[in-house]
C-alpha cells in the first residue's frame, strides 16, 4: 500500500513538472502566433493602408491560436468605440486572449495599442516593427532557454517526487 | 437612421442622452470645443447642453468613432479640414502639424463641428420645373456655408433622377448618398450612380467613361482642380449640376476660376440658397445661354 502511495506521489510530481514544461511550450507557440499576426498587420498596413476594422477582420481569418483570439476579441469589441477609447478596447482584448503570456509580452502589446489607429501609417508601422522586434527577441530567448527549462522542470518534478516517495516509505 | 441619429451615435452615452432632447427642434450641428460646454446649433442659435466642459479626450473619442479608430485612413479628408462618418461631415480644428509644407496631421484637436445632413424631399419643385423644362440645363447652386446647398443638390439629383435622367454623382466624401457599405442612406432616385472615395475630378471622369451619365453632379466645386474638371466636362455633352460656396453670381465673379467659367456661359441657371429665419429661400437666376 505504501509503495503504491509513494509511486502515485512520484508520478504526481513528475506530471506537475511535465505540465510546467507544456505551459512554457504553449507560451512560446502563442508568442510565435502573435509575431506572425503582427507581421501580417505590418504588411497589410504598409501595403494597403486599411482601417483597423478591416485589419482585425483579416487577422480573425488569417491568424491562428492566441493571435486569432486576440483579433477576434478586438473585432467583437470595436462597436464599443466612442464609449471607450481604442487603446482601452485593445487592452481588454490583450488581457482576455494573452492571459498565459509573460508580463513583458503583455506590456509590449499594450504599448502597441497606444499607437495603433492613432497616427499616420508610417508611425504605426514603425511601432509595429519595434514591438515585433522586441517580441521576437523575447521569443528567441524563451526558445533558447526551453531545453534547459524542460530538463529543469521534469528533473525537479521527478526529484521532488522521488524524495517525497522515499520519505513516505 | 437619419442624420441626427447618426450624429448622436458619435457621442458617448451621457452626452448622447443630454443631446437627445433637441431631436424635435430641427438641430443643424453639434459643436464640441475643448474647455467649453457642448452645444447644439438650432435655427435660432447655439444651445449649450450638459454642464461638464468638453475635454480633448472626448473629441478624440468622437474622432476615433468616426474613423473606426483609423485616423490614417482619414488623413486626406483631414487635410481638407474634416472627416466623414456615414454621410455626416465633421469639421476639425486644432494645432496642425506641417511637414514639407504639407498638412501632416493634428497635434491637438480643439474643436469639432458635427454637421447634420438633411433629406428634404419636395423642396425646389418650382425651380426644378424651370431648370428641366426643355431638357436639363447646367445649373450652379450657391449659398453660404450652412445654408443648405448640399440638401438642395441632393434633392435636385433625386428629383431629376425620378424624372428619368441618368445622373452620375461624384460624391468624394460620401455626403450626398451617405452610403453605408453599398447602400445609400439618402434617396438619390432610381437612375443615379454614385462614386465615392475618389477626388471629385477623378470620380467625374470615371463616371463619364464608364457610366454614360446624362448629368454629372458634384458638391462644393471650389478648388482649381475641380473647376478644371468642370471645364473639361463642359464640352462632353453632359449636363452639369454643381454646388459652390458664394452668395450670387457677382460674388462668384470675384473668384478667378469661376469668373472664366461664368464668362464662358457654362451655367444657364444659378440657384441661390439662403437662410430666412427658420427656413430657406431659393432664388433662380438665368446667367447663361
Characterise this structure.
The complex is a heterodimer of chains A (169) and B (289). Chain A has 169 residues and is mostly helical. Chain A has helices at 2-48, 52-62, 65-77, 86-97, 103-113, 121-168. In chain A, 84% of the residues lie in helices and 0% in strands. Chain B has 289 residues and is of the alpha/beta class. Chain B contains 10 helices and 13 strands. A 7-stranded mixed β-sheet of chain B has the order 9-8-10-11-7-12-13, sandwiched between helices. Chain B has a 6-stranded antiparallel β-sheet with strand order 3-2-1-6-5-4. The chains are: A mainly alpha (169), B alpha/beta (289).
Order of helices and strands of chain B: HHEEEHHEEEHEHEEHEHEHHEE
The profile of the biggest β sheet of chain B is: 7 strands, mixed
Q: Can you list the strand order of the major beta sheet of chain B?
A: 9-8-10-11-7-12-13
Listing every helix as H and every strand as E from the N terminus to the C terminus, the arrangement of chain A reads: HHHHHH
Average pLDDT level of chain B: 88
Q: Could you give the distance between the termini of chain B?
A: 42 Å
Would you count the extended β strands of chain B for me? 13
Shape of chain B: globular
What's the average pLDDT of chain A? 90
Chain pair with largest interface = A-B, 21 and 21 residues
Beta-sheet strand percentage of chain A? under 5%
Describe the sheet with the most strands of chain A. none
Class per helix and strand makeup of chain A: mainly alpha
Shape of chain A: elongated
Quaternary arrangement of the chains shown? Answer: heterodimer
- The radius of gyration of chain A is 21 Å
Sheet/helix structural class of chain B: alpha/beta
Could you estimate the helical fraction of the residues of chain A in percent?
Answer: over 70%
Q: What portion of residues of chain B belong to β-strands?
A: 25-35%
Amino acid at each position: 500500500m505504501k509503495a503504491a502511495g509513494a509511486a502515485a506521489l512520484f508520478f504526481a510530481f513528475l506530471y506537475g513538472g511535465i505540465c510546467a514544461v507544456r505551459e512554457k511550450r504553449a507560451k512560446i507557440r502563442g508568442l510565435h502566433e502573435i509575431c506572425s499576426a503582427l507581421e501580417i498587420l505590418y504588411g497589410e498596413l504598409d501595403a494597403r493602408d486599411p482601417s483597423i476594422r478591416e485589419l482585425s477582420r483579416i487577422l480573425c481569418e488569417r491568424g491562428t491560436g492566441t493571435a486569432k483570439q486576440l483579433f477576434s476579441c478586438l473585432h467583437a469589441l470595436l462597436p464599443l468605440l466612442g464609449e471607450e477609447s481604442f487603446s482601452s478596447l485593445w487592452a481588454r482584448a490583450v488581457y482576455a486572449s494573452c492571459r498565459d503570456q509573460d508580463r513583458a509580452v503583455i506590456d509590449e502589446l499594450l504599448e502597441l495599442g497606444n499607437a495603433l489607429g492613432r497616427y499616420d501609417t508610417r508611425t504605426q508601422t514603425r511601432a509595429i516593427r519595434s514591438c515585433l522586434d522586441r517580441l521576437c527577441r523575447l521569443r528567441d530567448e524563451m526558445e533558447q532557454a526551453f531545453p534547459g527549462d524542460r530538463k529543469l522542470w521534469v528533473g525537479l518534478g521527478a526529484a521532488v517526487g522521488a524524495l517525497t516517495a522515499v520519505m513516505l516509505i | 437612421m437619419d442624420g441626427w441619429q447618426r450624429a448622436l451615435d458619435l457621442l458617448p452615452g451621457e452626452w448622447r442622452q443630454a443631446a437627445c432632447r433637441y431631436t424635435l427642434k430641427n438641430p443643424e450641428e453639434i459643436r464640441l470645443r475643448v474647455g467649453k460646454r457642448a452645444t447644439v446649433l438650432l435655427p435660432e442659435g447655439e444651445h449649450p447642453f450638459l454642464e461638464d466642459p468638453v475635454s480633448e479626450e472626448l473629441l478624440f473619442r468622437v474622432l476615433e468613432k468616426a474613423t473606426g479608430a483609423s485616423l490614417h485612413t482619414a488623413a486626406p479628408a483631414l487635410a481638407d479640414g474634416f472627416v466623414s462618418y456615414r454621410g455626416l461631415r465633421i469639421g476639425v480644428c486644432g494645432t496642425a502639424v506641417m511637414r514639407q509644407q504639407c498638412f501632416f496631421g493634428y497635434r491637438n484637436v480643439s474643436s469639432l463641428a458635427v454637421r447634420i445632413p438633411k433629406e428634404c424631399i419636395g423642396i425646389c419643385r418650382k425651380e426644378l420645373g424651370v431648370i428641366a423644362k426643355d431638357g436639363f440645363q447646367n445649373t450652379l447652386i450657391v449659398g453660404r456655408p450652412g445654408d443648405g446647398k448640399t440638401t438642395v443638390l441632393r434633392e435636385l439629383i433625386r428629383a431629376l433622377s425620378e424624372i428619368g435622367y441618368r445622373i452620375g454623382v461624384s460624391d468624394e466624401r460620401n455626403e450626398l448618398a451617405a452610403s453605408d457599405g453599398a447602400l445609400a442612406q439618402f434617396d438619390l432616385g432610381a437612375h443615379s450612380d454614385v462614386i465615392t472615395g475618389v477626388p471629385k475630378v477623378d470620380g467625374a471622369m470615371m463616371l463619364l467613361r464608364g457610366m454614360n451619365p446624362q448629368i454629372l453632379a458634384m458638391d462644393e466645386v471650389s478648388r482649381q482642380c475641380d473647376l478644371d474638371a468642370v471645364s473639361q466636362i463642359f464640352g462632353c455633352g453632359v449636363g452639369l449640376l454643381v454646388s459652390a460656396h458664394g452668395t450670387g453670381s457677382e460674388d462668384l465673379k470675384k473668384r478667378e476660376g469661376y469668373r472664366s467659367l461664368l464668362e464662358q456661359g457654362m451655367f444657364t441657371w444659378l440657384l441661390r440658397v439662403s437662410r430666412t429665419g427658420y427656413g430657406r429661400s431659393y432664388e433662380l437666376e438665368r446667367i447663361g445661354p
